[in-house]
Fold these 4 entries.
Entry 1:
Amino acid sequence: MNKGGGMKKMKYVVVTGGVVSGLGKGVTASSIGVLLKACGFRVTSIKIDPYLNTDAGTMSPFEHGEVFVLDDGGEVDLDLGNYERFLDIKLTRDNNITTGKIYQAVIDKERRGDYLGKTVQVVPHITDAIQEWIERVAMIPVDGQPGPADVCVIELGGTIGDIESMPFTEALGQFSYRVGAGNFCLVHVSLVPVLSAVGEQKTKPTQHSVRGLRSLGLTPSILACRSTLALEENAKQKLSQFCHVPAENIITLYDVPNIWHLPLLLRDQKAHEAILGVLNLLGISREPNLEEWTSRAELCDMLLEPVRIAIVGKYTGLSDSYLSLLKALLHASVSLRKKLVVDWIPASDLEDETAKENSDVYKAAWKLLKGSDGVLVPGGFGDRGVEGKILAAKYARENRIPFLGICLGMQIAVIEFARSILGLQDANSTEFDPDTKNPCVIFMPEGSKTHLGGTMRLGSRRTYFQVMDCKSAKLYGNRSFIDERHRHRYEVNPDMVSRLEDAGLSFTGKDETGQRMEIVELPNHPYYIGAQFHPEFKSRPGKPSALFLGLIAAAACDQLDSSLHAHKIPNGTAKKISLYQNGNAAKFAKIPTDGIYSNCNGVHA
């Protein structure tokens, strides 16, 4: 709608959560963005995380799920990955606001003397800094078009009433007044539980949550109620009466088979009309065009032919740790009309040590690995499970099972090759054995060994193909170079490359210097590829990542040749999806992570 500055003021939609965390605020915020985009508006997103960390880079995946990496090298919350995938946009590190960033900015100003002798306080200095940050970042174009977006969707992490989010709640209260009526819409996501003993939908938790919200200076325009079933009419009327929200502005987010249904669920309850009404945009909007989303959601359960992918990782106890991987696998499997089945294998369960301590777990892990159609070894840090990952790579190489190694997974493949083919039994990474006589993987010279935060090789970097007659180049459409996102401290030792290549390994992608290995392949294997970058971060529902597409095509036996000969990624929009996920991946209660059948061989810390 913003064609050369037609719209005068930025509009803001703020999504907050009440009663409990993990209700699916991120997916709800993303779905609101999809709906507004379908109505013809340009949309950007901001995620507020009230924790004190400057960014998500130093947090364990068990604490907060995966660390999502942006083009500019920002290490951010996984919800920004949801925004990018749903809205097909490219965000910046500043689109993730944390308490740490805000306080750091204010303290830096204080040290410079910018406050002119004032006592620096939470109100007004911290709250002003939050509002200024929001206004500044909302104006950054993220969709490839010039000029700012029309609507900025802001998600406030955590739960209303948390001590750590108080400055943000106060700032948003001031902000609603600052931008004025008609430019600010608050959507409050809350829980309406059903007590099994009574079978009645209970509205009291939401009433209390809204009361808390009001006491903090925020008034909800729309209530989005999480429940197993659609809200009954009497529950809706009760909420309307006690929360002072019109009944037509109360929406139920009930359990659906897959998250592609959510924008449709919102549309069917006319959430777009409620939001646009509050923002005074109804007059210039169009009816939402959600054809692709509709076909994707409606056909999601029609895929019958399974493709089994074993993920051999360190953080398999929490599938949110590999959220983007799961999405990328799903996007690829859907485009090839396969039903994705994920077998989770904790890497340490494949090791000989486990065979001695718990033979049943060891046998179950190997049974899953041997029953898979393809093997994926993702990135990770630390030495736990490394030998198990090496065994998985060895199994895939020797048995000609399609294999994709990402980041550490690529390094693992190189180490395994050096041990098995070159006969270097102590070949290793200096990350795991600083004294190894055959360091296949070494610490990057520009890295820091004293500071962990933000000191890796991060963000979008260019990879140049060394030969065009290779699987990876063909999957990427025979382009001479590609730009993918990175997050690593260690790299393949350039001094060992010639020995490895003489033995049959092919480094088909390198950086601009030719010294940093980016893609490795085994030419005489059906599909054995390692990538130093993380291709999963740029995968989209209608535009699957090339290397994941190759893995699924090879695992499905009959489709890799056609994908390679097409010299491009199939542009099949994700029309059919099979979405069922065991475990807690989706942050949307019973809503599964985008349609993946899942087998989990034990949960390990």
Note: The first helix runs from residue 25 to 38.
Entry 2:
Amino acid sequence: MLQHSVLRICQFLLLALCIFASEDFDWTKNEMGSFQYGTFPSGFSWGAGSSAYQTEGAWDKDGKGKSIWDVFSHKRGKIHLNDTGDCSCEGYHKIKDDIALMKDMKLNHYLFSISWPRILPSGIKNDYINDKGIEHYDNLINMLLENRITPIVTLYHWDLPQIKSKKFLEEKYGGWQNASMVNFFNDFANLCFERFGNRVKYWITFNNPWSVAVEGYETGEHAPGLKMRGTGAYNAAHNIIKAHAKVWHTYNAQWRNKQKGMVGISLSADWGEPVDITNQRDIEAAERYVQFYFGWFATPLFHGDYPQIMKDYIGRKSAQQGLSSSRLPTFSPHEKSYVRGTCDFLGISHFTTSYITLKNFPSNHANSYFTDHDLAELVDPQWPDPGSEWLYSVPLGFRRLLSFVKTQYGDPVIYVTGNGVSEKMMCTELCDDWRMQYLRDYINEMLKAVKDGVNVKGYTAWSLLDKFEWDEGYSERFGLHYVDFGSKNKPRYPKASVQYYKRIISSNGFPNQREIESWKRKALETCTSSNQLLAAARRKSKENKAHADMPKVWPVHDEV
């Protein structure tokens, strides 16, 4: 009993220290500063990423079950131009080709996800295990290790199994609205640990649960397409947090001693910068933005409960709307203890920054996650925006975010699990100078953060390939490699950014000004030949199509 009391006191003191440390973050210091030359610590890991549904294709091959994205994308009007991920990059059939690209880039790691319905077609472990799916990921993992590339594996990148005994899993159980998903997901994760854990040492439970919750259950922009405004996102997130914690405890109890691996989570984290750093209301709004976005998931996993600002705002608005309890679920004392401390490392996926200012929404306004935090997002029209409408290049936010995480959460081990930029065009131009500039500026801000003492251990460029971009279909391209989706074989062509990123990897950073200035010039030179290859392939494809479309002329035979 005494030992238990001492342990709880220690946990309380640790929590108090972490909370106190968060007060050290300076919201008024936002200068980007000059470019900093230097290298990352020895052993820093460089990689690239992907996800199963976005790249694999083979949506109904070799026993794979349907996912919610298979069903969602097949509904007309849900995806730009009614695109689907049915074929995507055909990555399921091109493991050797894609690993050759990684080897050429000298990547240290590759981040990918396992498709839950590919190995458990019904989503339920006791129903049926698909050996073909297990074999596919066995081959991928083995081939990566043979080429000295470390696999970092995501267990859930949005492709929830859809079918269960001829009934929709989503309809029967409500997907992440239902707490029963916690056990289903734990069974799936445990199977992955059993089959792959002797070789995989870095596990990510969920990628960007914010999007799963908000876009899947609040706005309906993503699968499963539910619009449960004001409640759906909060309920889904609550179950996702508990599912993550259960998987961490399962690994900790059953596998850690044997396999010596680590389990973390990947949180998407756009940064919010106060419009006026001298205005306290803007500073408070910016902190609310970060807490409602990032702290929503990080704070329970590190401190055992939701951010106080979320509880205050949602609770007050719920009361004003005549509700007897908050729309934000609560953790029991046992659950708080259970979820706290369940991150061996923290994955951070970061792409952009917004300016934030106060905006009060009246209490009679319709329930919504987006009105609960009383703020408005703004952008500077001078910020570069080559691709996605939400993605502006604002490098200084990356260093600010990493510094915030260090002070707020007790200096955790961080892996950057996604950072990159898109182009919004059906482009055949492989000389992506804007992406090289983005990588240069963002990676340099990460270097500054490391020099500041932030414990960043690795960086993942997003993404290895152009791929299916969810509700945007194939209209946006994040890849370092161009994929010709119009060709049956989906050939890959390196963009200039491949050569640029290779030089950052080989130098482990930015050694000196003269060398760095030559990188972009040399990279642009190499993309010219790739453009010529792509143009030739397209000409040949058009010629073949024209030949195939020509009317057939059959010989005329005289009647006998």
Note: Residues 1-23, 165-169, 552-560 have pLDDT under 50 and may be disordered.
Entry 3:
Amino acid sequence: MGRRMEAPSSPASLVVVLLLGSLLLQARADDPYRFYTWNVTFGDIYPLGVKQEGILINGQFPGPQIDAVTNDNIIVNVFNNLPVPFLLSWQGIQQRRSSWQDGVYGTNCPIPPGGNFTYNMQFKDQIGSYYYFPSLLFHKAAGGYGAIRVLSRPRIPVPFDPPAGDFTILAGDWFKLNHTDLKGILDSGNDLPFPDGLLINGQGWNGNRFTVDQGKTYRFRVSNVGIATSVNIRIQGHSMLLVEVEGSHTMQSTYTSIDVHLGQSYSFLVTADQPPADYSIVVSTRFTTPVLTTAAILHYSSSNGAASVPPPPAPTVEIDFSLNQARSIRWNLTASGPRPNPQGSYHYGLVNTTRTIRLANSRATINGKLRYAVNGISFVPADTPLKVADFYSIPGVFTLGSMPDNPTGGGAYLQTSVMAANMRDYVEVVFENAENLVQSWHIDGYAFWVVGMDGGQWTPASRQGYNLRDAIARYTLQVYPQSWTAIYMPLDNVGMWNVRSESWARQYLGQQFYLRVYSPANSWRDENPIPKNALLCGRASGRRTRPL
């Protein structure tokens, strides 16, 4: 368990701490602040023509978009007007030195009904396309999500000309059953039914129209905010020039369609170079039977009607198409990221790894009910958020090291699993998928390099095929059926971080754990202190946050 950051014991120490705190605050004060007040409510929505109970933010579904610039300070005051606890999490936002703001139950006490909590985040050294979502219970199936767009600072070069417009597409599967019914199905030990449809920005078929002028180029940011299926996106009569994946500028390759797996985000440029008309933006599920499809409209401002060209064909059902496409996505080594220096100035492939972690997902039956597991352990939430328990050194909440580095091969069991790790370790993580479904994994607090993926069983010899030069850095990865995916990740962000399946039923039923990255320095240079406004619950109820 971690040590609590104690108050200084001498006047000299107090001066040092206050000076350090002042410098940290000054660094943030130099960057702009953006303030948001969000009221979270239930409301009637009809995304597939059936009345449902949806989660609205300021009356909107999807919720308001956050537009920011690298290093902006984002202050979001969330008022929970639901009759149940609530949290928001921020997909891909790294929360540097501050897992206190991550918004998952392992780090934050829920916002109680009628209560509020103010998230105080800095989008430190990040650019790109992200989104937020509700993380508790099964709220993600009720909406409550929205886009986050982080632009480069004005003096930082971007490897493409400014687009004429910047559009957001939040795509994903949807169920006609209310989120409470879906949760009830899982709680009873059963799996979810097949989704009923797909949504684009909360709307069904042709519910969205994106207007463009002929001859101009536009940026589209696409995130898969669904809970069950991968999707593919394509645009009738138009090609897509990929430019960014989850905060990394890519080599600019042209695609006719792009697979977007659960939790992932891509952005591409589309040039309106066709005769003026209305063209279909088509989104369909991947690797499913049946295939669900929806569409939006790419509307030329001088359009006289529907385009006469054939609709864009769906990609093949073969895994190889998707695997080869994923391998083709490369890091742009010469482009600037959030800083002026080129992305490729960090030679990730020349750093020796200090530890190899193998993570195998599995489906299991425990106590007569369906569960999912990682290395044979099916995660169960504790009565106190793990980060809070760690800070106050509360015993009995979790056992450090309860998530092993390798698959155990034994039967699955329930536990609040936490993996121990040290600040500045450089780890190789291999995700192994022996099942027949595509897996999608996310790691909070980090971006990592996807150095390899292939079919079959991973062995040390698999490293010979790793891309150690220009693999893409991202925050969500896919693992194909009967396959593996390997990443390199520098552990440079102290905190308690959620490692989870992006298939929300699997996550809910145990396919997740927490990675506790620890620094013995126990310094504000490595990790922010507990926020003064931190909500305390469980075994931490009644304690104080901090005196300063």
Note: The chain has three domains: 33-151, 165-331, 348-528.
Entry 4:
Amino acid sequence: MVGGGGRSRRRGRAPAALLSSAAANRTDHSLSCWYCDYKIYACNDMIFNLGSKHARYTRAWFSIGVYFSLVALVGISLLLLWDSIGAFHVRGGSISAWLPNLLASSFSVSIMDTLIIIASTILSIAFHEFGHAVAAASEGVQMEYVAIFIAGLFPGALVALNYDLLENLPLFSVLRIYCAGIWHNVMLCAACLLMALLLPVVLYPLYMSGDGLTVMGVPQVSPLSGYLSVHDVILSVDGLNIRGTDDWMKMLDQGTIEKISSREFLGGSQSYGATTSGKGYCVPNSWLDASKNLWQINDKLACPDELIVFGKFTCNSSTTFSETDRGSEKKEAESKYCLIAKDIVKLKKCGNGWWGTKDDESNCTCLEDEYCLVPVLAPGFSWIEISYARPYSLECLKQEGNLSSPHATNNNNGPSPCAETFVYVGDLSSAPRSVKLSPYRPRWALFLFIADVPYFLENSLSCLLHVSAALAAVNCLPVIFLDGDAILETTLRYVAWFTRRQQRVIIKLCRLLWTSLSIIMFSRFLYFMTVYYG
């Protein structure tokens, strides 16, 4: 968690405007057993001149930030309170899980990703503190220094202002200074979002998009590492075209909760659980006659290696599973077939498990000499058919060169060497995020050496957006040393119907409550991050 309090309450110090030019260019540091900082004075005059020169416009700008920050403070504080008492949950998890998801949803742990996270954090904090400094300068308050600190285990930064000068300002002017950091982080998020939207236009001359996802990296621990390689292009999943990472995530996440019908086979004293996704293929009768029947090994139904067990699918939306008595074991084995998956995926599809079919419908469009067979899977496993291409392979480049000839013809006879299909059978819980994907790929193989540039830009913008949003959200909380604490205190002073004593009581209670809740949230944050990176 990044701390960015953005203020310093120190009485008795001379106003920063009285500092000599020599002192303005120096640096200083403090060191103790739990706190160390590095103070920078070099930017004081430059930022003060910038803010004071355009004070009329910056005050209007930061006034908008005051209203936004007050709404955000109330909203985020209430969400954290509701979540802590277990009364509010959002789709996909609780609010306390939102922060780790916000920080970890777009990148995995690698050297490049780590550098992007560090750079995004530094830029987010710098822009946050720059907002405080410019807002103070527009009110005529020059900052004393900028400090980069580590308090315990938490890094952060702050802009030190003379507290006596702040006390003489109108309360709304003080709010403009305290809310400026949050407002700048929100505007940084908006800038990242706008740049991400304009990225296809900027990259259009050298890159193409919208016709698949380019594989940028496949870790060895990925369940798809044996199927995909770097610079492969994923074209479709279960027959539906993939145009962006959202489509990829949606399809594979759907695969984990796909329509399942299950039966239990009993053999002796053992039981074998089986499930089917309803994704079938029209298999010729000749294949069934030539296939090996289901083997019975150790009182369990199983297929030899590299073969998948299939069962017949009937029009009443169920597979033809037999009764579970011991006498029907032979009949049960005869109704199952061991087939090769890479041959099956080339056949016509049937069944009600494919996208576009309804739960109460069956697709029995096979010919008379064909049967609709569906794979029988182990519990918790999914059947996902993924089509991909290798446009930069030598064979594909040669074919494209031949097709580009004015005398070349393409009768679509035979499979293209550029496109292939494989079936992944297994647990999909970690598969979608285990592969690094980009919707952009170079238009020409000549520019393959810069294929990673769009992925780097996308990841950088996404990371900066998430980190800046997390920093703004954390600083909205009324926690001691954070902006939310100063905003709450100044707002209560702005409200006339509270006495000074009542204000102090409310501030103490809010600090105690939300500081405690924040500690709990941070503990859960560490837990979620530990589980995520497992």
Note: The longest strand covers residues 207-217.
